[in-house]
Amino acid sequence: MFSIIFQSAVETTRRVLERLAVQYVSQRMAWKLLKDVRKSAMRKAERGMPTFIYFASVSRTTFRGELLGEIAKWIVQVGFGIYFYPSCMFNSCTVNSKKDERVDKEEKALLLGKPEKARILGKTFLRVSITCCASLVFASVGAGIGATLIRPSLGHWIGRDVGNCVGYFAGIVCFVKLFT
Fold first, then answer.
1. Could you give the CA distance from residue 57 to residue 49 in angstroms, rounded to a whole number?
2. In angstroms, what is the C-alpha Rg of the chain?
3. 145 neighbors 159 (Cβ within 8 angstroms)
4. Residue 112, pLDDT score
5. Structure confidence at residue 101 (pLDDT)
6. What is the pTM (predicted TM-score) of this model?
7. What sign does the CA torsion over 29, 35, 37, 40 have?
8. Per-10-residue mean pLDDT for the chain, 180 residues long?
9. Which of helix, strand or coil describes residue 102?
10. Which residues of 77-115 are buried (b: 16+ CB within 10 A; e: fewer)?
């Protein structure tokens, strides 16, 4: 159920960002952000570009095309973190005043102090930022590799999706290495 709500929120946020891009960004930049990158990869392949230039061009176009989706995902994940933070702060911080009662490990985990919970919220923001950026970069590079090695349309799609997954996990690994 949560994943359905999450995906719906991401798609809605992306559509809002597309509207904002059309209204507040130059027409040329809005066109670059909203173009169909698979069709663009096919048109670039028909031009007969050298391989490296084709790879770089498809990667750059994919980066721009995926940017609004990753920003939308970042906004939704940070929004959920902010939404759940106050409920975590105020609902689970009540401590029994009786001194002789023992508090088990789960309750101790819920009874973290406010500074510790703020630190956890900050780490959540950082993790989301790292994973979204890594996912965007790896999806762009993967789309360029896929479009170069396989047919432009199918290769772009496969490369982008594989790069997106690899980027997400690479972002998680980098975050874990940095903050544990």
1. 10
2. 21
3. yes
4. 60
5. 47
6. 0.79
7. negative
8. 88 95 92 89 89 93 92 93 69 46 48 71 88 94 92 89 92 85
9. coil
10. bbebbeeeeeeeeeeeeeeeeeeeeeeeeeeeeeebeee
**What number of other Cβ atoms are within 10 A of residue 47's Cβ?**
9
pLDDT at 161: 93
Neighbouring CB atoms inside 10 A of 8's CB total 11
What does the pLDDT read at residue 178? 84
Give 52's Cβ-side CA count (13 Å radius): 0
Contact 140, 171 (CB under 8 A): no
Ramachandran bin of 60, using left for φ above 0, alpha for ψ from -120 to 50, beta for the remaining angles:
alpha
Spatial contact of 174 and 134, defined as CB atoms under 8 Å apart: yes
What burial class does residue 163 get, using C-beta atoms within 10 Å of its C-beta: 0-12 exposed, 13-18 middle, 19+ buried? buried
- H/E run at residue 51: helix 51-91
The torsion angle over the Cα atoms of residues 25, 27, 28 and 29, rounded to 10 degrees, is: 20
Structural element, H or E, at residue 99: none
